[in-house]
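Reading a protein record of the kind used here takes only a little practice. The record below shows the convention in full:
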Amino acid sequence: MRGMDQAFIRNFSIIAHIDHGKSTLADRLLLRTGAISRREFRDQILDTMDLERERGITIKASAVTIAYEHQGRTYMLNLIDTPGHVDFHYEVSRALAACEGALLVVDASQGVEAQTVANAYLARRGGLKLVPVINKIDLPAARPEDTAMQVEHLLGTAAEDCVFASAKSGAGTEEILRAIVEQLPPPKGSPDAPTQALIFDSTYDEHRGVIVYVRVFEGCVTTGEKIRMMGTGDVYQVLEVGKFRPKPEVVGSLSAGEVGYVFANIRSVAAVHVGDTITSAARPAAAALPGYRPPLHMVFSDFYPGPSTEFRELRSALEKLQLNDAALMFQPINSEALGFGFRCGFLGLLHMDIVQERLEREYDVEVVQTAPTVPYQVLMKTGEVVEMDSAGELPDPSRFNEIREPLVRVDLIVPADSIGAIMALAEDRRATFGKTEYLSADRAILTYEFPLAEVIYDFYDKLKSATHGYGTMDYEVVGFRTEDLVKIDILVHGQPVEALSFIAHRTKAEGRGRAVLRRLRKEIPRHQFEVPLQAAIGSRVIARETVKAYRKDIIEGMSGGDVTRKQKLLKKQKRGKKRMKMVGNIEIPQKAFMAVLEGGS
């Protein structure tokens, strides 16, 4: 079945640094093309999650089809909105794979930022045509011409090719739509060829099962036909095909070049893989589409069921969430302190934070979470290189030769007057300087190589402080490097607690150990006896704190008399506490497990 003439279809994304007005611009395009009425118009209409609205960020890519009249012709515009935060880089790469072009949105008052650079290069590598949009030109601090020159310096695109706009007021909306149809290329592919449709996202509906979001590259997906998942070989019958306008609207089929959703009564969460190819069961394609590179998990944390949640409930929630968030990874583990749970892999700290909140809000499960760690490589005496994502997995030092930690290339875009402060901060974090490049007279890009462990904790906060809020960063993993790293065990009342152990550079081990113990001392409740807290490297204790005991005032009410009576009672109390100390069990609250993170570096 033939769909719309491909010459009148445009598939595009909006890419930008976080908070540059990407979601507002998407709303404005929907309003201008009549996809929503002014009465329905509200901020961030494509940001459907409560979390997205509260935090003011886009977390999930979302697709919507709009119609635009130009020179007497009706164009089908398929917009795939993308996140802007560095942690959701993978979501952006998936969205771009379904497009031929993109709007690159830059804030006229902030200029080019770190994620602007990263997303622009990502789109260029994917062969996408870019239309630069200078947004927020109505702000008092806006410098649209300067920003256009920065874009020219970055992309080599002529400054006069930038579209000046204000998503908030609607200025420039018509020019943006015209640029989309005139400058972005139409999709290729034949509706008569064997079907190849790329799954770029999916979601789970309690009543209908798995709903798959697809971009059709070749052939057609039609209601009633049987389709095959090329990755798994599973066959399903298509029950419904539709588009989001932005509400779901049923259509008979999706043809080559089109974007929409497919519902095929898929009940198993594990049956759908983002990046898989859908083809016709009767006339299958010879090969699958390239799909996506697997996501690189750079932060790991253990999730355990909380007091009101069972293990199977947590497993079910993670499986459903993984369907909607392909970058999430998890596997079952067991801990002496916390029981059965899951080791989860994330793209970054914000991704981890979002996953935990989504589990608790959307699936009503309670989660106990340990402090996040980065992956390490260990060169064993046998010559084998083993990758591990937790300090508890580190073998005895006598069995390995070296530990390697992940390195990231970090691009920092900062005001020129903050360069000295940033260099001092980078030196403190064991960074290696790369180069400095000036975007303009007052803004520069500094490139460094950092150990990832030095970046993921509180570096972003420190960067914002050092640049008075104007610094931005983007990072990319470049490999592993051998360093003098040691495992620090945390002992509570003489017993090592694996969930609290961590890996640090030897020069920072003592400082990190003391900082963690100070945090722990505040979090662990006082008992009837003293609780010693120790940080140790092997058998050598490098730091110690003590949780003081409660002391019942047994001499209250005793006034005057012989002092030896009071001393006798205090000695008796001391002997009693000694017995308690031998049999006492220490309760460690959930907040204490985050002390390793908050202890700083």
